[in-house]
Amino acid sequence: MSSITIITIAALACVAAAADFQGQKLSWKEDDGLEVKIIRPISEDKCAIKSQAGDVVEQYYKLSDKDGKEIGSNFGKKPYTFTLGANQVIPGMDRAMTGMCIGEKRKVVIPGALGFGTSGRERDNIEADQVLYYTVQLVDLFRPVPGASWKEDDGLEIEVTHKIEDDKCKKSAAGDFIHQQYTLHLADGTFVDSSWSRNEPFKFKLGAKQVIAGMDRAMTGMCEGEKRKVVIPPALGYGTDGRPPQIPGNAYLHFDIELEKLVKKDEL
């Protein structure tokens, strides 16, 4: 048997191994055009947890066009953080990052309808209905522990999506300095704004009227590290005038918030 034949057989063996890594499916294409290929699988014995909706994930990504030209990347930089399945990223990315092990890397092809749609994204020169070519890696994930929920007499709704045990709780009060992460949607799901997209928390003094009344109240009594879903009625938000052009009058504001860091007033 020639050396060329031996090399060919070895190469075919590698291909067969790549197609079936410990019984895992390594590539697939879904009916709506989403394509996923796992290029760095993680063995089952090293995969303690797989990503699912509600997890807070840390992601490395590289976005390219159809010719392989890089549009943007954060590999080697600070990971991008978002809550999976919470409409904080494009629909195709939410789905592509589901079911991943920490350390896993994938190549993903996202059709325009699951990407930036007919609007595109001007700041990155992404055209309407453009197909997106991503390489993504799950750096880490955090799975929340849900807590209580309640609705107050004036319509403020609060749901604790990740609670902190009492013996570990550093609790916020008026006069404290808040480092807050948030995502804001309207009642119909329209995205308005997010601190996560800037990788920079919003900072303010609690109870000092530096934010809308509903947010001052929603973040009072929170533990450092706690997460909440909050619905703020118009009277506690931007009222009848709204905040044009993104927030119309009489809008109910749907927030996902996290008290990332708390500096007590006696620590200032």
From TrEMBL:
Q: Which reaction does it catalyse?
A: [protein]-peptidylproline (omega=180) = [protein]-peptidylproline (omega=0)
**The organism sits in which domain of life?**
Eukaryota
UniProt entry keywords in alphabetical sequence? Isomerase, Repeat, Rotamase, Signal
Gene Ontology cellular component terms for the protein in this record: endoplasmic reticulum
This enzyme's EC code(s): 5.2.1.8
Q: Which residues form the PPIase FKBP-type domain?
A: 54-142, 175-263
Q: Name one Pfam family in it.
A: FKBP_C
For this UniProt entry, which residues form the secretion signal?
Answer: 1-18
Q: What is the name of this protein?
A: peptidylprolyl isomerase
